[in-house]
Amino acid sequence: MNNDSDKRKDDLKDGDALALGQQLCFAVYSVAHAFNRTYKPLLDKFGLTYPQYLVLLALWQKDKMTVKGIGEELGLDSGTLSPLLKRLETAGFVSRIRDKSDERQVIITLTPKGVGLKTDAFGILMEIGKATGCSMEEAAALRSALHDLNRHLDENPQDQSLVR
Amino acid sequence: MNNDSDKRKDDLKDGDALALGQQLCFAVYSVAHAFNRTYKPLLDKFGLTYPQYLVLLALWQKDKMTVKGIGEELGLDSGTLSPLLKRLETAGFVSRIRDKSDERQVIITLTPKGVGLKTDAFGILMEIGKATGCSMEEAAALRSALHDLNRHLDENPQDQSLVR
DNA sequence: CAAAATTATATTGCGTCCAATTAAATTATG
DNA sequence: CATAATTTAATTGGACGCAATATAATTTTG
């Protein structure tokens, strides 16, 4: 059923706030995919996926972390990491050894092959740097803005409707 | 303090360029996950996932798109969209009808239920806006920077190392 | 027109992701 | 010190995301 005010519903002053192009979340979503596409051919040479590469980045900073420790660094849980780490182990980049003093924990350690890959990572870093088209300063500024955004989103009070 | 030669082993000029915190890609990756976590409780109320919500956003802008058309809007292929759209159909948000004039194409159309959800989407938009902690201007600036980055990454010449 | 090439969608397989559950080990408590 | 509560990983199931392949419809070309 029509009336003469049909059109008004979607003429909000600023165009349509629900347009994909106006959504910050979609911009982030798209860039995340774009990074993935850019990394893929570089990481394929080593048989790595991007999340696997992130785990190696974490281990190059601090070797011998537990699964939980890696999860905290990357924001991933054991549901993601357990199978991922098994694949890294099968590929020979890390070892998984249960902590003798606390058998609940599994210590992830870089193998020599895993350590050796760090050298190649600088090449990847360079390629990605070029691909972004950002200067160091631009990249730093963008990173900073994203860190702030991340902090805000994570501080977001969880859904209160279910909290007694 | 220690002997000044101690720290030389890993001082590649600017600290460690491979640190997770210094990687723009990881900042983007983390924010994408953070957005997902923020959206989840809001979308759960409607039984939607975030990618499904993106499809609806696209259809609210332009209804009756083909699978390919939606894929171009969102940067997704049929491997992702075919099952996703079936779930949206099963949930009653869209219909999938093969184009009579070109039976290769499937036209995705919003059902009344799918159209009706647009009203609720404004509420979600508001919640997300609050959660970002960004002003309109900050969000617009960040979006713009991300669009530039996206463009650069997608323009990145494909791996030339295999091309002779 | 018939064969070949192209296009649009669907399917399969693998690797994330996350929620929920399970199992084992450790710590806290009565 | 025995049991309850907590902690850590692993597992399971559902949903992306993408590469590779398959299938059917359309267009191109010889």
UniProtKB/TrEMBL annotation, chains A, B:
Keywords: Cytoplasm, DNA-binding, Transcription, Transcription regulation
Organism for this UniProt entry: Rhizobium herbae
Compartments where found: Cytoplasm
Membrane spanning residue stretches: none
Entries under CDD domains matching the protein: HTH_ARSR
Name of this chain's protein: DNA-binding MarR family transcriptional regulator
Taxonomy, superkingdom: Bacteria
PROSITE patterns the UniProt entry points to: HTH_MARR_2
InterPro entries attached to this UniProt entry: ArsR-like_HTH, HTH_MarR-typ, MarR/SlyA-like, Transc_reg_Sar_Rot_HTH, WH-like_DNA-bd_sf, WH_DNA-bd_sf
